[in-house]
Write a structure and sequence with these properties.
Layout: H1 3-13, E1 24-27, E2 38-41, E3 45-49, E4 55-62, H2 78-90, H3 94-104, E5 119-124, E6 132-139, E7 144-151, E8 154-163, E9 168-175, E10 181-188, E11 192-198, E12 202-208, E13 220-230, E14 233-236, E15 240-246, E16 248-257, H4 269-281, H5 285-300, E17 304-306, H6 317-323, H7 330-347, E18 373-374, H8 378-382, H9 384-388, H10 396-417, E19 427-428, H11 440-443, H12 448-463, H13 466-486, E20 488-489, E21 496-497, E22 501-502, E23 516-517, H14 521-541, H15 545-556, H16 606-619, H17 625-637, H18 641-651, H19 671-684, E24 685-686, E25 691-693, E26 704-711, E27 715-722, E28 725-733, E29 740-745, E30 748-753, E31 759-763, E32 768-769
Parallel strand pairs: 25-29
Antiparallel strand pairs: 1-6, 2-3, 3-4, 4-5, 5-10, 6-7, 7-8, 8-9, 9-16, 10-15, 11-12, 12-13, 13-16, 14-15, 17-26, 18-19, 20-21, 22-23, 24-25, 26-27, 27-28, 28-31, 29-30, 31-32
Length: about 775
């Protein structure tokens, strides 16, 4: 047998789904750990698929299953303590201020409610202890996980997917010979719940969520599994369902809680699961699959990316991750990019909750950092790729949460600060808590809501949707009102500053080596954006002229950005950076002005851009997963593609990426995935005032193409390049109010007429192609 014939014969034995290599994660063995399992999701329900031979495990999540119930942690002692805290900070008595904040201003309880697992569905296969020709994988083009192997003389196959409508997880078991499908289905959970078989063909888990931080569990939840067999025998035990001698079988899974919203837990999980199961029960497996794939591909197929391929693309994904730092697998970077888009579709769809620290997936009752919403960077980073990567609908859950926080945060603003508007500190959860939690070092940061407003404004910039702007305007206005009431003049210059605050989670070298300070650079940068955006929204909507004038006046008095003695962008009002205890700190908060904001620009503010670059050099490239991804975005904004690619090599290595491609913070946090996807998009397209093509293309990707990326102003862009140079671009305009589109490539730029819904193409010299 020739080598060519042997290769062809081996290829024919592979399952069909493996032939679509560019968009497939695949492995030669089952997952031994949770971070090797493959994630599925429909925005509400999530499953981690392990692909075991003797036993399959599907770890299940539902996006409202948090501990506790509605609560308000705002501390009523805070308002009285606030003047003394400010006095201590301005006097340089930071340690004393920190002590007083810990005593009088922190939330009660001190931590928020954790996101919890629903439990596990187990499928046990009798006699299947060993197998050959094993493959498991996840096809990003269809959002279907597959397992196949040969055992007992038959080829066994599984496919698992999360269907958005109906809201169910579907498992299909089959074999290439009749009568070979046999298994027992059971469920297990760490929750306070019971499991029983019902109706002879279903499993039912019913329970209540956990308590945390003294807050009693207020949610009821239910998980329901319907088992349908094609031939063979189906038998029910007390808490299990068995199938023997079947040709195939389908399991349909639904999970729901009694959560209606952050203050209403009166829902009926039984009615919800029955409705979802009922909506799927009468559909064939082909109809369910077709419905799922159509809804998913409507989002996923908007964007394609080709960075070239090599022989490494034929290897299993875990092996490719081990070798990526060698630089010879550009297709893995494209797969990583598309995996990030896949994850956002899977964990954030309209009507559901936003992506939390772990997106949608968590196997614990006490996950790291409660798997909540950390809004001093992590939640915002989750949505960085949404607009550029053509997934604007996925932002809706974040916008809905921000509008909720504007309600709960109004009480926090009044109780703790005596202020109008609303405020949210550095964390929140399902119950939309907004008071400062954890400890003064990280929690006494009143800017979380303001940063979320930046994400919401970005959605408007990409869509130009005035109806959406009207929807979010109360949140923008309320956030700005809070700072109009709470900013204070600092003694030396009279600049308006926040006080008390911190530069997120970083300690400065001032007296007492505290984190507490007044007016850190990041606060000022976020406020410049908030005041500008709130004012612009007021103008566009024709509302609140007096308010617009107030925010403009306050913005002009904010403390300016400063360059320190080392040439760095200062993180604090004082030039403390070079003496900071953690000079390589994971947060690069003061560089918000460079990315995700556009206050610092290589061409418009070159001195500040040079200072931001110096700060990046001081901090170093390697940090936790999400912090590494942020650095990659920042270097992309500085147009240094080779530096950004070197950071990607670290991010996409076993040190920061698990075998299933989840981000290794460590432990797992999903923000690194989303930050990495965003950075790759930034390397190819930027749109801060003009469409800039290939602004940070690295030498490692000399030839390639991308299609469907989005730009601010309502544009969609396709780009082709060859030998490291732009070859062609096609630009489509969805903004009927747009007249001119300025396109830049390197030092060249050109203006194109885009009246109405026009589309145009240009060559590498920015000459229009007719």
């Amino acid at each position: 047998m020739t080598a060519c014939f042997r290769f062809l014969a081996a290829a024919l034995l592979l399952p069909a789904w493996l032939h679509a290599q560019p968009l497939v994660l695949w492995y030669r063995q089952p997952a031994a750990k949770w971070v090797e399992a493959l994630p599925l999701g429909n925005g509400r329900l999530g499953a981690m698929v392990f692909g075991g031979i003797a036993r399959e495990r599907l770890q299940l999540n539902e996006d409202t299953l948090y501990a506790g119930g509605p609560y308000d942690p705002a501390n009523p002692d805070a308002l009285a303590a606030l003047p003394e805290v400010r006095r201590l900070i301005f006097a340089g008595q930071y340690a004393e201020a920190q002590t007083l904040i810990g005593q009088k201003m922190m939330a009660k309880p001190l931590r928020e409610m954790p996101y919890e697992t629903a439990g596990d569905l187990f499928l046990t296969f009798p006699g299947a202890q060993s197998a050959t020709n094993y493959r498991r994988g996840l096809d990003l083009d269809t959002a279907i996980a597959h397992v196949s192997y040969t055992a007992g003389g038959a080829i066994h196959s599984r496919e698992i997917f999360c269907c958005a409508d109906p809201n169910v997880i579907v498992v299909r078991l089959s074999a290439d010979k009749p009568g070979c499908v046999a298994f027992a289905a059971s469920m297990k959970t760490p929750q306070r719940a019971s499991v029983q078989s019902i109706g002879g063909d279903a499993l039912l888990m019913s329970g209540t969520n956990g308590a945390a931080q003294g807050i009693a569990g207020a949610l009821r939840f239910q998980a329901r599994v319907l088992v349908k067999a094609d031939g063979g025998t189906l038998a029910a035990g007390l808490d299990s369902i068995s199938v023997t001698n079947a040709n195939a079988a389908t399991l349909v899974i639904s999970v729901a809680t009694s959560c209606k919203n952050y203050h209403d837990v009166s829902g009926d999980p039984q009615a919800l699961t029955e409705k979802s199961i009922g909506g799927a029960a009468n559909l064939s497996i082909d109809a369910l699959r077709q419905r799922h794939v159509a809804a998913y591909q409507h989002l996923f197929r908007r964007v394609s990316l080709d960075l070239g391929a090599s022989a490494a693309a034929s290897l299993p994904t875990d092996e490719r991750i081990k070798n990526f730092s060698d630089g010879g697998d550009p297709a893995l970077a494209a797969l990583y990019f598309q995996f990030g888009r896949y994850l956002l579709i899977a964990c954030s769809r309209p009507g559901g909750q936003p992506a939390n620290l772990q997106g949608l997936w968590n196997e614990s009752m006490t996950p790291p950092w409660e798997s909540k919403y950390t809004i001093n960077i992590n939640t915002e980073m989750n949505y960085w790729p949404a607009e550029t990567c053509n997934l604007a609908e996925c932002v809706e859950p974040l916008a809905d949460m921000a509008l909720d926080l504007a309600q709960t945060g109004a009480r926090t603003a009044k109780v703790m600060y005596g202020a109008r508007g609303w405020v949210a500190h550095h964390n929140t959860d399902l119950w939309r808590a907004t008071a400062p939690v954890d400890n003064p070092k990280s929690g006494m940061w009143p800017m979380g809501g303001a940063w979320l407003c930046q994400n919401l404004w970005e959605h408007y910039l990409f869509s130009n949707d005035s109806n959406y702007l009207a929807k979010i305007y109360p949140a923008l206005k309320g956030a700005a009102q809070f700072y109009l009431d709470t900013l204070v003049p600092e003694p030396s210059h009279g600049w308006l500053v926040t006080c008390p605050s911190v530069s997120p989670e970083n300690t400065h070298p001032g007296p007492g080596k505290s984190s507490l300070c007044a007016g850190p650079a990041m606060d000022m940068e976020i406020l410049r954006d908030l005041f500008a955006h709130a004012g612009r929204a007021s103008l566009v909507l024709g509302r609140d002229a007096d308010f617009r004038a107030q925010v403009a006046a306050a913005r002009a008095r904010l403390a300016p950005l400063q360059i320190g003695r080392a040439g760095q962008l200062q993180e604090w009002l004082e030039d403390w950076d070079m003496e900071a205890p953690e000079i390589h700190h994971r947060h690069v908060s003061h560089l918000y002005a460079l990315f995700p904001s556009d206050q610092i620009d290589l061409r418009k503010t070159p001195e500040l851009a040079a200072a931001a670059k110096k700060s990046l050099e001081i901090r170093g490239d390697q940090a936790t997963g999400w912090a590494t991804a942020w650095r990659m975005n920042l270097w992309s904004r500085l147009h240094d593609g080779d530096h950004a690619f070197n950071i990607l090599k670290f991010l996409l290595s076993p040190q920061r990426t698990y075998p299933d491609m989840f981000d290794a913070h460590p432990p797992f946090q999903i923000d690194g995935n989303f930050g990495g996807t965003s950075a790759i998009a930034e390397m190819l397209l930027q749109s801060q005032g003009e469409l800039e093509l290939l602004p940070a293309l690295p030498k490692a990707w000399p030839n390639g193409s991308c299609k469907g990326l989005r730009a601010r102003g309502g544009f969609e862009v396709d780009i082709e390049w060859k030998d490291g140079r732009l070859a062609k671009a096609a630009i489509r305009n969805s903004n009927p109010d747009a007249c001119v589109c300025r396109v830049r490539y390197g030092e060249e730029h050109a203006d194109f007429d885009v009246n109405g819904h026009a589309a145009f193409s240009c060559d590498g010299g920015l000459r229009e192609l007719k």
